[in-house]
Amino acid sequence: MMRPWARGGWRVELVIVLVAIVALVLLGGANAYYVRIIELVLIYAMVGMALDVITGYGGQFSLGHSGLFAVGAYAASYGYLHMGIPFPLNALWAMAIAAVAGVIIAWPALRLSDLYLALATMAFAFIVQLAANDFDGITGGAGGVGGLAPAISRYGISAWLGEHYLWVVGLAFVVTWILLRRMTRSRWGRALIGMRDSEMLAASVGVDLRALKRGAFVLSAMVTGLAGALFAHLGFLSPDIFQLALSISFITIVFLGGSGTLIGSLVGAIVVVGVPERVTIDPNLNLVIYGALLIVVMIAAPRGVAGALQSVAERWRRTRSAPKPSVAVDVHEPATPGPRVRPSEPLDPRRALVATDVHKAFGGNTVLNGVDLTVGAGRLVGLIGPNGSGKTTLLNILGGQLIADAAELRIDDERVEQLGPPDRVRRGLARTFQHATLVPSLTVSENVMLGAHLRGAIPFVGAPFAVGRRLREERALGERAAALLEEVGVEPGYWHRRPEELPYGVTRIVEVAVALAAEPRYLMLDEPAAGLVEEEIERLAGVIDRCVGSGVGVLLVEHHLGLVLRLADSVVCLDGGKIIMSGDPETVARHPAVLEAYLGPAWATPATEVTP
Amino acid sequence: MATLIEVLVSGLALGAIYALVGLSLNVVYITTRVVSFAQGDIGMLVVAGTLWLGDHGGRPLAVDLVLALAGAAVVAVLVDLIAVRAIRGGVGVAAYGWIVSTLGVSIVIQNSTAMWFGTESRGFPHVLPTGTIELFGAVIPTERLLTVAVVAALILLLALAVAKTQWGRVARALADNQPIAAACGVPTNWIRTSVVLVGAALVGVAAMLSAPQTFVNAYIGTSLLLNGMVAIVLGGLGNVRAGLVGGLVLGVANAIAGRYLDSTLVPYVPFVLLLVWLIFGADVRGKLASARAARRRDPVGVTA
């Protein structure tokens, strides 16, 4: 079976390089004017790819890339003219300076939510725009800086490179594309898309959102700095180039070409930079058209030209290769779980998920008031209680999605209440959510691979440079996802579909597979059976039962009392933020307080027989 | 002392205008969760439109102002329909597609305006009576005091409408929970449109009040938008009262900088203020928010 994330090995990269060489040979024969336009297109496309990483993949809007581009350009020109750094080396220097600028913006701004980042980066762009006019020593003021074309350099190699500048730019573009492409096709690409579509889910499978945002932003800044350096050596820098409008051009390049595709930026750059160079009736009309294009693209094809082509290709590939789900035979008929043998040995509190004295209030509304809960390894605790009794709040506190007012939380005897969700996942805790939560733009199997994020080993900084290792990791994660999907009984026909195409019942079971992909030792399920039909519930019961049997401690929040009573080793009943009853399922099921809280006063009469 | 009073008054007048732009952004943001990057350009359309109408036919200024305001309001509604509502509800990046599309709208409005209005900067007639009064030895233009008064009156009017009228109740319901408001029979699209109209009116008045002090060209929308955005970010997006304070703070800071700082440094003030606040303000905001939460009992905390 094709595994999209594993594609793109060195063979594809070789093809990219060969095509690029052929293209450059052909284009290099054009006259100097056209060559200059091509260089400009490639440089802008590089910035587009850099912006795509943080915005298209990561979902963080930056209006500051004109500023980063300027920082790169001026760092390169200053290093070249005043510090004696020869041409190819000063590009590295520019990347470093742009990275520093990226760190300065990213560290504080990425603590803030999306829109604030857009505004903070916009402020940065304006400050750079003003500074480009004011800091004459570096920027030459309004007059600009000239004499940057490497052809007139003191250094022999620079001069040679200046004569073949299209090759320099082309090489930089291709190398950047290949490196970024590798990153986006590693586990980090999935993590970025997961973060973009659902921060909550991404964090719950162990993606450290803040670190990833910062890492991606700094990577983006470095590439933008490199592009700025290449731009500087086109010959001349004038401060009125680096206006906010340039940032908007970069955004246009990304969204017109196709966000989340990298190479779409080349298409975008051709339209935004290349076409106006040739066709200009009225500069204002040009801009009107390009603004209108931006609106039309967002309405009609939010994933841009390359994105639209990609989905067509994907649909075509799928109709050819993937089996239809409807007729598929159930590959894994789960054995209907009989009464599992309940563990008899006493519970070891050092091998357990333990919450002690949990308090939480929202404003003046106390939701949890001194709750204790222990989920031992290899045991299933059913958490029941009426709506609003605090079950999900307790799960959120255990998972780190909410901070308790007071609580002591331990995973295997280690205190975790100070840790964020990713660190708790690292310590073996996974969960599902009450409302169906999958990453909409990833396929089912990619969602499960995202669930296994922490099972991957390639670090973010290494991802652009890993070839064989990345392919092996992707294959391993893909095979693991396939095995898990088969185990929970999702038909192969669904594996390469997106969540929106799934029946509801399949969605819920895929969520369990996503949580299991992290290989947790403790698993929290929030109403996994809600909305499922009897047959699907049976399958779910089988999955949960095998899971517990393999030593995982499961905390099951569920309204389907029959399921809970059948699977649980012990049951805890919450009502009004307090545990009103706990014990083995039989006792709890007959307890009047539980019946009253759960089913209403009429059920609390002792004579009533419970038939779940 | 006299200088300080003059600086403060001019700062407050400036700040009142920023606050008004911020209010217009906030009102729309609270109801629609969108900060239109074209909002400043709607203000620009009002003043540029007024000048253009003045060139074509001899109506009184007041009539031209009203006509231009109406025209700009129609544009604002169209922008909401085409560039915001049409692309709502996407997943992934598309969820923030309105940032891109309203940036696109801004480009379209600015450059198409440049085509019919021209690219040159023009003066704008005084809308409010001019003159000066003396206060503690300081000479203060009445226009500035009246600017503050007009803005205060508008804010009061809006606050009353939001608090006391059925429109206000319904708009607040829409802001809180659109599906439930719709389920209760609120004509959500019309309410939304009315809020967009109010936003357009507010930014239009802000442009009318600021244009006599500066000038008018096709591109002044950007600076209107920026100052309004800085104002609401200083105050906290979606927080109307704090946004107004943010506007005043920005205005006073600008006026003080203009009086006492080197003139090349003045343009940096709003952006540096914004960055510093974004970087160091998070902790302050967090403390303020938790203090507020502790003081006020939150009736809707049932997420369990």
Provide keyphrases for this structure.
heterodimer; A: 612 residues; Rossmann fold; six-stranded mixed sheet; four-stranded antiparallel sheet; 24 helices; disordered N terminus; B: 304 residues; mainly alpha; 11 helices
Write a structural description.
The complex is a heterodimer of chains A (612) and B (304). With 612 residues, chain A is α/β, with parallel strands linked by helices. Among the domains of chain A are: 11-242, no CATH class; 348-428 and 520-612, 3-Layer(aba) Sandwich (Rossmann fold), CATH 3.40.50. Helix content of chain A is 56%, strand content 10%. Chain A contains 24 helices and 10 strands. Chain A has helices spanning 10-28, 32-57, 65-82, 87-109, 114-134, 136-139, 156-163, 165-184, 187-197, 199-204, 209-232, 244-257, 264-278, 283-300, 304-321, 391-399, 421-426, 444-451, 468-488, 504-517, 534-549, 561-567, 585-590, 592-599, and strands at 352-362, 365-376, 380-384, 406-411, 414-415, 429-431, 522-526, 553-557, 570-575, 578-583. Chain A has a 6-stranded mixed β-sheet with strand order 6-7-8-3-9-10, sandwiched between helices. In chain A, strands 2-1-4-5 form a 4-stranded antiparallel β-sheet, with helices on one face. In chain A, a hairpin with a 2-residue loop joins strand 9 (570-575) and strand 10. The longest helix of chain A is centred in the N-terminal third of the chain and has 26 residues, at 32-57. Chain A is elongated. Chain B is an all-alpha fold. Chain B has a domain at 2-6 and 16-220. Chain B is built from 11 helices and 2 strands; from the N terminus they run ααααββααααααα. Chain B has a two-stranded antiparallel sheet. In chain B, strand 1 (132-135) and strand 2 (138-141) form a beta hairpin.
Task: Specify the oligomeric state.
Answer: heterodimer
* DSSP strand content of chain B: under 5%
Spatially, the strands of the biggest sheet of chain A line up as 6-7-8-3-9-10
Number of strands of chain B: 2
Rounded mean pLDDT of chain A is 84
Tell me the radius of gyration of chain B: 20 Å
Head-to-tail CA distance between termini of chain B = 58 Å
Low-confidence stretches of chain B: 296-304
